[in-house]
Specification:
Elements lengths: L21 E6 L4 E5 L1 H7 L8 H23 L3 E3 L18 E11 L2 E10 L1 H28 L5 E6 L9 H7 L3 H4 L13 H15 L3 E9 L2 E14 L2 E11 L1 H22 L3 H12 L6 E8 L11 E10 L10 E5 L4 H8 L3 E4 L15 H6 L2 E11 L2 E11 L7 H13 L1 H24 L10 E7 L10 E7 L5 E8 L4 H20 L4 H11 L9 E11 L2 E9 L5 E3 L5 E3 L4 E2 L13 E5 L4 E5 L11 H14 L5 H11 L8 E7 L3
Parallel strand pairs: 20-23
Antiparallel strand pairs: 1-2, 1-5, 3-4, 4-5, 6-9, 7-8, 8-9, 10-11, 10-15, 11-12, 13-14, 14-15, 16-26, 17-18, 18-19, 19-20, 20-24, 21-22, 21-25, 25-26
Helix pairs in contact: 7-8, 7-11, 13-14
Length: about 675
């Protein structure tokens, strides 16, 4: 900028007078003030002392900024100082601190003669507001530090979020407990440390609070800490300004020990109530399974143990019956009933013999073959099991039942504390279980006798035959239901199922006699099934007392490269044939009156083709009869069930049939299934 001297000392600076900012000009190396406009004088002059601008300039501006004036004068490079770098000027007209933004630039008066142009802007309001914000922020941080120090006396974690629920500030206590760094939990990323099972409820609850539905948020969840998942109690309150939530301040307290104690007492109370209100052992163990899952495990099966060492079972030390199952939500529950023979190497046998819990852990979805009964292995694999606890239930010095508790996925294996809790649950239920066990022992004796009267189906090269017997849960005596299967002298397999009226020792004796007589008659002659039943009815006249019975007798014959069923029924429920496409149909031919009454007419036989891959089901009336219900309703219920499980292996098919129908509890049940090769 060049300025022309027109002979006067003030030069021609009038054009700067109306400028809205303060303007001043110095001249020479000693920076003599030669011009200032009204705005500059109003900002710098001190009316109280009447200090002229020249004196104010010399007394304050130059001592503080002389080096910058010298630099601009010598180099010609301008200097600009912003409000953040401005210095308050005590000579200002307004009381209190004043802040300015200014610039210095060189001007030329003539050849070799220079000066400095000063432009000054009052930014006190803006600077004061910024300083206030900084002061408020610093005060807030100081208060939060104090509050966090106070909270450490009662809380493990202290945290702050924005008004919309996003974590907005680092939390040293969060990082100390969880091991996460700020980048890992800012915003909504903290939810990654919440247990997957608790995450949906936490999101819903937190969203509900942030949405304005509560003045205080309280919630319990499992948080992944450096030591694994632990339960935390969360409390948070909103901080409001002008009626708007600007942030949430919260604390998290580790309540794992308290939560475990409360859960322990709650489960013990539930177990005590369940067993006190139920009478049968099956109901009690089923109720206990529902207490265990999902609180303590992801799956549970309860098994009755029958210690039978006779030759009939091939030397297998145990027969177990699964009576109850439970599974976590989202998992398919195993059928409550199954029956299996266990070899001595099975973990169940070891646990029962040792009368001590046996805990096994293994890679996810890869259980050892002997960890559980064979029928349970597919469930463990399908549900990513990682551990199994086998817990013998000791009652009055015996082990009548075994509990199998399973953990899956990323759930930790069952701990020692949980095993202790399970033992306490069964200890608390001991008296109720003892009463039920005494009844169950009588049933076990009767069941052992019943099994001794029933024969294992023969092993055939292309046909698969499976039989099941289930005693009435309300009766301790043996019953009259029976099944039988054997190979005739001509190589034809024979199938028999029957039911002697009554439910006592007399009925069991009569059943045994009928079974033996029918075997003898069938082995003696190759006659139509109807003729065999006719001769059996005559032979029954030699039995003492009035004995009546129903029965189905059938031959499974090869004919034209396929199989056919030649059968007759004496007052028995009709066989059910399930075709390969899963459709069920009752075989209602070959009917004649029940056995034990005089019948002079010949008993008819019926022939039915058996398609490849089909399944034939024989059963006793305890499977379909219900008090006050028409038999047709029970038969239709059975047909729908077998169609739904037609694709199951034949042993699982039988278990599903027994488990899938509501039991009347008044009668024994016998079933036998024949599976044809596809």
């Amino acid at each position: 900028m060049e300025v022309t001297d027109r002979g006067g000392s003030n030069l021609s600076f009038e054009v700067l007078d109306p400028a809205p900012v303060g303007m001043a000009v110095t001249r020479g190396p000693d920076h003599r003030l030669v011009y200032s406009n009204a705005m500059y004088r109003s900002q710098v002059s001190d009316p109280r002392g009447g200090m002229p601008v020249e004196e104010a300039f010399a007394a304050f501006v130059l001592p503080h900024y002389r080096s910058w004036f010298d630099q601009v004068y010598a180099t010609g490079e301008p200097v600009i100082r912003t409000a953040e770098e401005a210095v308050p000027i005590p000579g200002a007209r307004e009381p209190g601190e004043r802040f300015f933004t200014f610039s210095l630039s060189r001007v030329a008066f003539g050849p070799g003669e220079h000066g400095v142009l000063v432009m000054l802007m009052d930014v006190t309001e803006q600077a004061t507001a910024a300083h206030q914000v900084t002061a408020v922020a610093e005060e807030r941080r100081r208060i939060l530090r104090r509050y966090e120090s106070l909270m450490r006396l009662s809380a493990d974690i202290f945290w702050v979020t924005s008004g919309d629920g996003y974590v907005s500030e680092p939390s040293p206590s969060w990082e100390r407990v969880t091991g996460q760094q700020w980048a890992d939990y800012r915003g909504q990323r903290w939810l990654r440390t919440v247990h997957p099972d608790d995450r949906p409820a936490t999101i819903t609850s937190w969203s509900h609070a942030v949405g304005g539905a509560t003045a205080m948020w309280e919630h319990i969840y499992r948080l992944r800490t450096r030591d694994g998942y632990r339960h935390f109690q969360l409390r948070a309150v909103p901080i409001c300004e002008n009626g708007q939530v600007v942030e949430w301040v919260g604390s998290s307290v580790d309540i794992e020990q308290q939560w475990q104690e409360q859960r322990r007492q709650r489960l013990l109370d539930r177990a005590a109530i369940a067993t006190a209100q139920l009478r049968s052992l099956e109901e009690m163990l089923g109720a206990l399974a529902d207490v265990i899952v999902p609180e303590l495990a992801d799956g549970c099966g309860v098994y009755l143990v029958t210690d039978l060492t006779g030759d009939r079972h091939g030397g297998a030390p145990f027969i177990i019956e699964r009576l109850a199952t439970a599974a976590r939500p989202g998992s398919r529950r195993l059928p409550p009933y199954s029956e299996e023979q266990l070899p001595a190497s099975n973990a169940f046998v070891q646990a029962v013999r040792g009368r001590r819990p046996l805990l096994m852990t293994f890679p996810v979805g890869s259980p050892p073959p002997q960890a559980v009964p064979r029928g349970t292995l597919p469930w463990l694999k399908a549900n990513d099991a990682n551990g199994v606890l086998i817990l013998p239930v000791v009652v009055d010095g015996a082990v009548p039942a075994v509990v199998c508790a399973v953990t899956c996925g990323d759930r930790p294996a069952i701990s020692r504390d949980t095993i202790t809790l399970l033992n306490r649950m069964f200890d608390h239920a001991h008296d109720a279980l003892s009463r039920a066990i005494r009844f169950q022992r009588a049933q076990q004796i009767a069941l052992a006798l019943q099994y001794s009267l029933l024969a294992d189906p023969p092993s055939l090269p292309d046909l698969r035959i499976v039989a099941r017997y289930r005693a009435s849960p309300s009766a301790a005596d043996v019953g009259g239901d029976w099944y039988d299967s054997f190979v005739l002298p001509d190589g034809v397999p024979a199938l028999v199922i029957g039911d002697v009226s009554g439910h006592d020792l007399s009925a069991a004796v009569a059943m045994s006699q009928l079974r033996n007589m029918l075997r003898a008659l069938a082995m003696d002659r190759r006659e139509p099934p109807g003729e065999i039943l006719t001769r059996l009815n005559v032979a029954m006249e030699s039995l003492s007392g009035d004995v009546t019975a129903t029965c189905v007798y059938a031959r499974v014959e090869k004919f034209d490269g396929a199989y056919r069923l030649w059968y007759a029924s004496a007052g028995h429920p009709p066989p059910l044939l399930v075709s390969p496409d899963g459709r069920g149909r009752f075989l209602e031919g070959g009917l004649s009156p029940l056995l034990g009454f005089p019948h002079t007419e010949p008993r008819v036989s019926e022939v039915e083709p058996l398609p490849p891959g089909s399944t034939l089901l024989l059963y006793t009336d305890g499977l379909v009869e219900r008090p006050g219900e028409h038999l047709d309703d029970g038969l239709e219920r059975l047909r729908r069930l077998v169609e739904s499980v037609a694709d199951d292996p034949v042993d699982r098919f039988c278990d599903s049939v027994l488990a899938g129908l509501p039991a009347s509890g008044l009668d024994d049940i016998a079933v036998m299934a024949l599976r044809l090769p596809a």
